[in-house]
Design brief:
This protein has 334 residues and is α/β, with parallel strands linked by helices. Helix content is 37%, strand content 25%. The protein contains 10 helices and 11 strands. The strands form 3 sheets. The chain has a 6-stranded mixed beta sheet, sandwiched between helices. A hairpin with a 5-residue loop joins strand 8 and strand 9. Helix 3 packs antiparallel against helix 10 and helix 6 packs parallel to helix 7. It starts with a strand and ends in a 6-residue tail after the last helix.
Length: 334
Amino acid sequence: MKDVTFLHPDFFWLFAVLPLAIGWYIWKRKQQTATLKISSLNAFKAKPSLLGRLKPVLFALRLLALSAIIVAMARPRTVDVNNRTKTTRGIDIVIAMDVSGSMLARDLKPNRMEALKDVAEDFVDGRPNDRIGLVLYAGEAYTKTPVTSDKALVIDAIKSVKYDESVLKDGTGIGTGLATAINRLKDSKAKSRIIILLTDGVNNSGVIDPRMAADIAKEYGIKVYTIGIGTNGNAEFPYAKRPDGTFLYKMMKVEIDQELMKEIAKKTEGKYFRATSNTKLKAIYDEINKLETTEIQEMKYYNYDEQYRPFAWAALGLLLAEIIARKTLYRSFI
């Protein structure tokens, strides 16, 4: 009877009548047999028969039958609930991530790139009903993961992101990164399409002007949220490599073209953010998550399995057993 619910639980109040029936039976029990007054019982000293001692079982059968009827009237049943969700306003999102050498700066911990990866993973994991893609750019750009609903694939792609000058020429091609992200979304049929564009520098590479790319995004109705990563002032930047392949760092001034990022966001009806710490970066993603909500329609399907029949059959069996015993073994009135 695990996970059983009752359609009419009010019928359980009828159990309160059973103690009254028991009291009535005890009170009337002596009146159920004939009586005879005699001066002495010496001639009738005999042990009661087993059948006589078992006579109260008839009343017990009736009580059990009544109890089974009450439970059956309460309509016990189990329910299997299937939840199905239907996205009524889907969102396609592309994260355009700067992976230039400056993303190894240590003003965010352990560095900008690793801090960004951690937050981006949480963001993707928190949007199970949207499709998400990943574009990486430095001096050039390419699509790491196309727009997909496979969140595990996107998260694995984010985890594998690293600085590799053999894959992308170093530099910061903001226009190229934005244009590549737009290309991933321009044919999307989603009702809402957004790009999260992240950079920590100034546009100094690529053949596409960032403002022109912003105009293209506006033309396609794609909203761009821009994020500038880096503290205000100076930060430890990598400037050379040791023979063992590790980087040498020195303090350098943080330069982010905030005016350009603000212009791109404003033109596409997005918003510009500045992430100066790990906490601020997470707060930015949380805010974007709240700004871009997905409307979900949840449908529940209930499959009921009625369980009252066994109780009804048990009640019938108990009543028949009582009637048969009363008409055969016990010929009396009650």
